[in-house]
Amino acid sequence: MARRRRRKQKNSIEEAIAGIALIAPFFFIYSVTGSIGASVFASFVAVAMVIAFIFYRQMAAATRLRNSGIAEIDKMDGHQFEKYLGHLFRAQGYKAEVTQASGDYGADLVLTKNGQRIVVQAKRYSKNVGLKAVQEVYGAVAHYRASSAWVVTNSDYTEQAYRLARSNNVRLINREQLIEMIMQVKQKNSVTRKAG
Q: What is residue 26's predicted lDDT score, i.e. its pLDDT?
């Protein structure tokens, strides 16, 4: 729901920019030249540029999704996702332990880095993650003697989950942030391979 709202907001912004691109050049050119024909032409050129820019951004986003491997993540089961996250966090310099599948006390992974201990709840979902995941990982903090709690998903979170996470200082990593994390690791690995 939150992702849909952000997408709708983004589309509204793009529509507003296209509207401004149509109107602003028309009035500017008309005020300078007094020619309606030149004003209409300038508006069409501006709109074409905005459309080309939006198309370019959509193509770049589609390529980024393809390169991130998120489609493969969407096909994983929960345990595979936990193992994948373990590898992803190790690539970022964390020591990552995947906890036992049952009786994990609310944490699927325990990360350690720079003396900090972080418990992670992994949710490979096709729908938004609710507040239960936030409750579970928050409960795991004391058991694992952790300093932080995170929930990571390939999806997004409900508004209630966002509110509870804010009030309990739980970090929520959603689909977009996960993709960004994956792309940063891939870029770092690519640079390392080229340098080596």
A: 77
